[in-house]
Amino acid sequence: MDVSKVYGIDTKGIQNLKEAFGNNTKVGENHDMFQSLLDSAISNINTTNAYLSNAENEKIKFALGESESTHDLSIALQKATTALQYTVSVRDKFLEAYKEIMNMQI
Predict the structure, then answer these.
(1) R_g of the chain computed on alpha carbons
(2) C-alpha neighbours within 13 Å on the C-beta side of residue 101
(3) How far lies 93's CA from each of 15, 50, 97, 100, in Å?
(4) Quick one: pLDDT at residue 25?
(5) What are the residue ranges spanned by the domains of the chain?
């Protein structure tokens, strides 16, 4: 399961985001903080995708009888579950912060 498809982010979309925010003429502390936050979020999604892919591969190996190690399967599944929960919680906190900022009175 590719999580980037769930969130509507693909490799082209990630590249577009990097270009849009990386080529900005305003260079400042806030821009650098946003760029590092964006890079961190992209890295988080890529790591989650890798764990989910590894878990899928382990399930397939186990189902086909290529692997008899339930230990490797359970570790891969737990890593994937934890990474996905973390990604979803970060997304939820980000949306919560966005909504709070949008409701601020100027």
Answers:
(1) 18
(2) 6
(3) 24, 23, 6, 10
(4) 47
(5) 3-102
Q: Tell me how far apart the alpha carbons of residues 53 and 38 are, in angstroms, rounded to a whole number.
A: 23
User: Is residue 20 packed enough to be buried (19+ CB in 10 Å), middle (13-18) or exposed (0-12)?
Assistant: exposed
Q: CA quadruple 7, 13, 14, 20: dihedral positive or negative?
A: negative
Residue 4, pLDDT above cutoff 60:
no
Residue reference for tokens 């891969």: 76
As a whole-number percent, the residues of the chain with pLDDT over 90 amount to 52
For 6: left if phi > 0, alpha if psi spans -120 to 50, otherwise beta; the answer is: alpha
Place of tokens 């992209």: 42
Q: Which amino acid is at 72?
A: D
Cα angle value 46/88/48 (rounded, 5°): 20
